[in-house]
Write a structure and sequence with these properties.
It contains 9 helices and 15 strands. With 307 residues, it is an alpha+beta fold. It is 30% helix and 35% strand. It folds into 2 domains: 118 residues, Rossmann fold (3-Layer(aba) Sandwich); 171 residues, Tumour Suppressor Smad4, CATH 2.60.200.
């Protein structure tokens, strides 16, 4: 088992690409000489259970064949298992998702053969993680993330996308469809933000807190984020007209929206978000019900394979 990879495969990732392309990916892993054991997920949340189970069996090298949601489940397994320190587990990815946002920050190829060459080369870096504390139906819960946690409009769009999965509207065009239909309905919230020891109050349309740069299929929501600096990057978009949003959507893809007068950016290690009406959240694209949120950075919590 030493040196062997556990591969968790999401067959529904990328609108079915995980299932369609797994035979090809498996052959490429074999050709690269990467010894592996694989299991295909059967439902949402299954990857958490599978990765945790195989870590308990002694595996300390994990490959995710899926999208950002599957990666998020693997991260939650790594950070809740008790066999190893989390940074002792190597995490790699072969992206087959629709958004593939986490890999954009690290320039991990979407070409399968090239992604496997990255894994074979074995360059490992330490990577921060985020921890979210929230309440669902009166029960305190925890969710971890490796990329970005979005709240407000961002979370409302993600919820619509997730409710449509699997369907054609979980494609890239479907994502933009949900952006514009949500835009017609979404309103701002009055929000109290506690950033470490600093408290600010704002009327907020949408906000993001995270570790890496991209979400929403390539939107550069946190253009200044560094994955290993021990800080959460926070971007807040205040009250803004719908027409101004539509006119400036392209600025989300290159990060230049930060120059807009309605936008503020911060860094912190600990963030509390108290909103009225309550914000929902998406953590690496996975929806979390509306709540008061407490977010903290976990420096160097993960070890990931990158080019």
């Amino acid at each position: 088992m030493k040196g062997e990879w556990f591969v968790v495969v999401n067959p529904n990732a990328g609108n079915g690409k995980g299932k369609k392309d797994w035979k090809q990916i498996s052959a490429l892993l074999d050709n690269a000489g990467l010894q592996h054991t694989n299991i295909v997920t059967e439902h949402q949340g299954h990857a958490i259970k599978l990765v945790r189970r195989y870590i308990d069996m002694g595996f300390s090298r994990i490959i995710v064949v899926g999208g950002d949601g599957t990666l998020n489940e693997a991260v939650n397994a790594i950070l809740t298992q008790r066999k190893y320190y989390s940074h002792e587990i190597e995490l790699a990815m072969i992206p087959v998702g629709t958004g593939n946002d986490w890999v954009r920050t690290h320039n991990i190829p979407t070409d399968y053969a090239n992604a496997i060459e990255v894994i074979k080369a074995g360059k490992i870096v330490k990577h921060d993680a985020g921890k979210v504390l929230y309440t669902n139906e009166g029960i305190e819960k925890t969710r971890y993330f490796i990329n970005i946690a979005g709240m407000g409009f961002d979370a409302a769009v993600a919820l619509k996308v997730n409710l449509q999965k699997p369907s054609s509207r979980s494609s890239e065009m479907g994502y933009f469809y949900h952006i514009f239909t949500t835009l017609l309905q979404h309103t701002t919230s009055n929000v109290k933000l506690t950033l470490d020891d600093k408290i600010i109050e704002r009327e907020i349309f949408t906000m993001a807190a995270g570790i890496c740069k991209y979400n929403g299929g390539g939107m550069k929501q946190l253009p200044n984020a560094l994955f290993n600096d021990g800080l959460l990057d926070v971007t807040v978009i205040g009250k803004v007209s719908k027409s101004r949003i539509i006119m400036n959507v392209k600025k989300l893809f290159d990060g230049s929206f930060l120059a807009m007068k309605e936008v503020e950016s911060f860094t912190c290690k600990h963030l509390i978000v108290e909103s009225d009406p309550l914000f929902g959240m998406e953590a690496d694209g996975e929806s979390i019900s509306p709540s008061r949120f407490e977010i903290q950075i976990l420096p160097y919590a993960l070890s990931v394979v990158v080019p």
